[in-house]
Amino acid sequence: MSITDGGVRGRDFVGYRIAGAISALVFILLLAWAVFEIFDGDSFVRPEVSMQAAGTEGEAIAERNQGTLLASEVLTARTKMLDERFRTGPSPEGETPELAGGDARIVSTPLEDGTALTSAWAVPSADDAAMLQAAGRVEGLSSLPYANAALYERPAGRDWRIGISDFVTHLGAIAILGMAFLLSAILALRGRVPIRQGKSGRTVKRFGLLERTTHWMTSVSFLGLAFTGIAIAYGETLFVPLGERVMGTLGWWSTWGHVLFAPTFFLGILLMIVMWTHRNLPSKLDLNWLAKFGGMFSDDGDHPPAKKFNAGQKLIFWSAVLGGLVLVATGVTLMFPYYFLGIEGMSWAMLIHAGLAVLMIAIFLGHIYIGSIGMHGAIDAMWSGKVDRNWAEEHHSIWLDEIDTQRSPAE
Amino acid sequence: MKGFLAGTAIVALSGVLTFFGLRTFDQSTAERYSDGSVVLLDHATSWEGTVTHTGE
């Protein structure tokens, strides 16, 4: 790194910039894939077989019984039988439900394109929607063998499914990959934010052990929650191609892990509120800092002055605190189903939880980037607790002055 | 480094405690029979009209 022409410059970090360029290329390809996935109709339910009632010999039922035995009646009987079996287990006394029209069985034939059959349900026209939601209630019989799956057939369940699978997950993927691409591109084009004067070799204490422990406890918990949450939300896309056993095992441990990381995440948020809120209240300095974007994009001129936390760090703090509390609140209602909320409330809690979570992951990618590779010398603040004086002077000039004034009477 | 190790250790300890804590108070919602079929406990069927959840 040269210290010619007025100090170290971001573009001098050549190795970092090459790595940034390669990452940017990878992420833009992933981003293109995520955009493609939006328009790929895979998330629609598409029936693959059609079912008809038939006599025990397979003859068409209409001929034998003048069409009085409808396929739906057979399906209903079959569903009751299967559901009964789900509830009570195999029993020699179990009775096969009787059919109004006598013996019959279901014959299934492959259906070439069943999209039309479910399109009214997936994307209802005004008339269909009115019929589905007549008088504010839905009545009917689900023919799905697993009774709880009937939840997805309700209009509210359908809206929830569209919200989760077609909205939150797609936009989440674009937010996360988009942020990763943006940060890689910044690293490639701008390089690291340098310490313009280089490291002085003299340090100043920035964070104590309690502060650092709290930070890492919260961040390790957040990473654990993020990875397990991504496995839960995107498992079908990411892990099913590796095999159903992989998905089964990962899914099992992800649901467990998502609960296990939660208590320390919550504890960390509470401790951070106690330790850092008074230093993160907004001030006039923040407007100036935000107007110049912290001097992040230019190596010319000074960085805007800041106290212990600049406006960017304050935004990160409030994202963590407010976002974290909402995530904890919604998460707890989902950890204890039906205890705090009913099915409708839990649907909303899950949508809010998932939507906010993907947003938080995108935001904290930015925090992780600027705290590590994005800015020379920044990681020391949370690793050793001591930062280089030149770093402090360039990024937190007012705070450094405060520290020096406090020290000088004692010296 | 000390802060990172301490923080990670607390997360690991809390994870283990939470795991065994939840296992202790776990109430099964389903049972599996030897033939592989599963019985769901306290689940209403789709045709029983109002679906109620008592939490019991």
Descriptive terms for the model:
heterodimer, A: 411 residues, mainly alpha, Fumarate Reductase Cytochrome B subunit, two-stranded antiparallel sheet, elongated, B: 56 residues, alpha+beta, rod-shaped
Strand content range of chain B = 5-15%
Q: Which superfamily, in CATH terms, is the homologous superfamily of chain A? A: Transmembrane di-heme cytochromes, Chain C
Point out poorly predicted stretches of chain A: 63-68
Shape of chain B: rod-shaped
| Low-pLDDT residue spans of chain B | 44-56
Order of helices and strands of chain B: HEE
* Name of the CATH first level of chain A: Mainly Alpha
- Provide the domain count of chain A: 1
Q: What does this protein look like?
A:
- The complex is a heterodimer of chains A (411) and B (56).
- Chain A is mainly α.
- Chain A has a single domain (4-42, 157-407), classed as Fumarate Reductase Cytochrome B subunit.
- Chain A is 61% helix and 4% strand.
- Chain A has helices at 14-39, 61-65, 71-88, 115-122, 126-132, 155-190, 209-238, 244-260, 262-276, 284-291, 311-335, 343-371, 379-383, 389-395, 397-410; strands at 49-54, 105-110, 203-205, 386-388.
- In chain A, strands 1-2 form a two-stranded antiparallel ribbon. A two-stranded antiparallel ribbon of chain A has the order 3-4.
- The longest helix of chain A has 36 residues, at 155-190.
- The radius of gyration of chain A is 29 Å and the shape is elongated.
- The two termini of chain A are 36 Å apart.
- The model of chain A is unreliable at 63-68 (pLDDT under 50).
- Chain B is an alpha+beta fold and 56 residues long.
- In chain B, a hairpin with a 5-residue loop joins strand 1 and strand 2 (38-40).
- Residues 44-56 of chain B have low confidence and may be disordered.
- Helices cover 41% and strands 11% of the residues of chain B.
- Chain B has one helix at 2-24, and strands at 30-32, 38-40.
- Chain B is built from one helix and two strands; from the N terminus they run H-E-E.
- Chain B has one domain.
- The interface between A and B is large, with 46 and 28 residues.
- Chain A: One of its GO terms (molecular function) is metal ion binding.
- Chain A: It is found in: Cell membrane.
- Chain A: Residues 206-385 form the Cytochrome b561 bacterial/Ni-hydrogenase domain.
- Chain A: Pfam families: Ni_hydr_CYTB.
- Chain A: Belongs to the formate dehydrogenase gamma subunit family.
